[in-house]
Amino acid sequence: MSKIALITGATSGIGEACAHTFAQQGYNLVLLARREDRLAKIAHHLEDKYAITIKQVFADVRDKESLTAALEVLPAEWKKVDVLINNAGLSQGLDPIDKGDTNDWDIMIDTNVKGLLYVTKIVSNWMIPNQSGHIINIGSIAGKEVYPNGNVYCASKHAVDALSKGMRIDLLPHGIKVTEINPGMVETEFSVVRFKGDEDRAKKVYENLEPLIADDIADAIWYVVSRPKHVNINDMLIMPTAQATATIINRTP
Ligand code: NDP
Ligand code: 8X3
Predict the structure, then answer these.
(1) pLDDT surpasses 90 at 1
(2) In degrees, to the nearest 5, what angle opens at C-alpha 207 toward C-alphas 206 and 213?
(3) Is residue 248 part of a domain?
(4) Which protein residue's CA is at the shortest distance from atom 33 of ligand 1?
(5) In whole angstroms, what is the distance from residue 71 CA to residue 119 CA?
(6) CATH assignment of the domain containing 215
(7) Per-residue confidence band for 98, with pLDDT thresholds at 50, 70 and 90
(8) DSSP 3-state assignment of 240?
(9) Which ligand is nearest to the Cα of residue 213, counting in written order?
(10) Residue 141: CB within 6 Å of ligand 2?
(11) What is the domain extent for residue 104?
């Protein structure tokens, strides 16, 4: 059987781009997300185009019980996952700490931190018997710096940074690689989700600069995954050329 990559958040943006890249490389895929129609459409397109096989997992990474059930029901041969891309994540709102919506905080922490942990626990236990595997955690520049009003989103991505380091230590005896990929601004549905459907506000984030696109990140992830067995890239920070830090951006009208 071909190699298997399990990608969370595969219905959009970086996760969808990774699905294309790994399908093109001949991987069979386990694709996980909540939006069933979108996931089915992407999966059918990739199966037809690249003659690979895809298992669709409709699950919310925040819901421990149903997530576990949806993953554990996979046939044994599909649990031989070579690459896990922990990509599902989001930001909600951009408010100072005193004005933040506590529901937004719950959603970010439950998705970006706890959801990533739940998936990792399940899949690392599938990797351990094989004494191999590669876990890619999608962090962010927001996991390396804190910017105004980014408070809880930044905290959730700093947690991904710490967890990536912790996982690398704990999974070392099992030959499992752990890499953290930290993008700067990537134009995806991220800002539309952050601003709860306000497309105009979302567009302004990328105004007068050339942001990264999702394929730039998928390309970097493929580079990391395709290194020789004895090489691991621990951490990668990838920025648009026009972005020096989270907040220092060269906008040229
Ligand atoms: P998108 O909004 O385009 O994609 C997010 C994906 O995550 C969707 O497929 C969505 O699928 C999935 N998702 C969200 N919540 C859940 C959930 N509870 N359970 C399962 N799947 C979920 O954004 P990006 O592609 O930009 O984001 C991907 C990752 O990259 C995130 O972790 C984000 O924090 C990170 N990132 C993004 C940057 C950017 O500038 N865009 C920069 C740095 C990091 P569905 O709604 O169908 O469940
Ligand atoms: C997404 C990029 O700069 O909005 O992680 O935090 S940013």
Answers:
(1) no
(2) 35
(3) no
(4) 89
(5) 9
(6) 3.40.50.720
(7) very high
(8) coil
(9) 1
(10) yes
(11) 4-238
For this complex, say whether ipTM is above 0.85: yes
Q: How far apart are alpha carbons 131 and 158 in whole angstroms? A: 28
**Atom 5 of ligand 2, residue of closest alpha carbon:** 140
User: Does the pLDDT at position 18 exceed 80?
Assistant: yes
Distance of CA 128 to the CA centre of its chain: 21
Rounded to the nearest whole angstrom, what is the distance from the C-alpha of residue 32 to the centroid of ligand 2? 22
16 domain-assigned: yes
Q: CB under 6 Å to ligand 1: residues?
A: 8-15, 33-35, 60-62, 87-90, 111, 115, 138, 140, 183, 185-186, 188-190, 193, 214
Spatial strand order of the sheet with 133-138 comes to 54-58, 28-33, 4-8, 83-86, 133-138, 176-183, 235-238
Please check whether residue 244 lies inside any domain of the structure.
no
Could you report the per-residue pLDDT of 168-199, keeping only the tens digit for each? 999 999 999 999 999 999 999 999 999 999 99
- Beta carbons of 177 and 134 less than 8 angstroms apart: yes
Average pLDDT on 81-85 reads 99
Residue 201 predicted with pLDDT over 80 = yes
What pLDDT score was predicted for residue 233?
A: 98
In a domain, 114, yes or no: yes
- Average pLDDT of the chain to the nearest whole number: 98
- Joined together, the tokens standing for residue 62 give 């925040």
pLDDT at 55: 98
How many Cα atoms occupy the beta-carbon half-sphere of 76 within 13 Å? 2
Q: Which two tokens stand for residue 24?
A: 């093109």
The active-site residue out of 27, 153, 206, 223 is 153
**The total number of structural domains that make up the chain:** 1
pLDDT score, position 37: 98
Q: Measuring from atom 44 of ligand 1, which residue has the nearest CA?
A: 140
